[in-house]
Amino acid sequence: MKIYYLHDGNENKGPFTFEELKSKNITRTTPVWCAGMEDWKTAAEVDDLKSLLATVPPPIKPFMTFPSNEEVQKKIKNHNILGLSRSNFFLASGVLVLVIVLLITNNLQENRKNSFEQKNNQTEKNNEQYQLQQKEIQEQKKRIAEQESLELERAAKEEKQNITNRILEIKNSLSVNYSKLKNAKIELNNAADFQFLRTPEQRMEDIDLAQNNISYLKNEIATLEQEINLLYLKLEKIR
């Protein structure tokens, strides 16, 4: 009894007996090999296997038939969509889709335009508000500067008046001190003169007292003159 092997294009299958090959549905081109063969053969080339090959009927030829008028009308109705032919329906659908796309596009563009205009208006409002704020700040700075100027002017006038008053006081003090100095010098001359009813010790005390009074008055006069000179300089700067 012969043992057969089959090849499915990827690997060998078998061994199979002749009876087992009946259930494998081999075709004419199925590669087959058994002992005694030099190489693989197709099943159609092996005489023992020809009885196993399935007979394949030829393809059927189409028959030309003409549908009836009713069938044609029925097919036409079946091919219509919403009362329109398929071509007209798809054309209308395409136009409708195009119109919808255009409407959506116009709506988006209008929304973008409105949004852009709103942003521009808001920006203009912000700029106007910023300019008003800057103007108010500048006016406030101007008012502060004017107030500071008035305050400085007032302080300068007050200081000038105080200096003037002090100069007048010093002048009065100098006038008094010069008069006192003049009298002190007279007293020194009188103390230096010889007088009866006065001891030498009393004479020296009178001289020392007059000289001390003169020194004191000179120091006071020098201090007042130095102060009045500084006040004159300060008064010149204020003017």
From TrEMBL:
Domain GYF: 4-49
Keyword Aminoacyl-tRNA synthetase: no
Domain of life: Bacteria
Coiled coil: 106-162, 207-234
Transmembrane segments: 89-108
Keyword check for Cell membrane: no
Keyword line: Coiled coil, Membrane, Transmembrane, Transmembrane helix
Protein name: GYF domain-containing protein
Organism from which the protein derives: Flavobacterium degerlachei
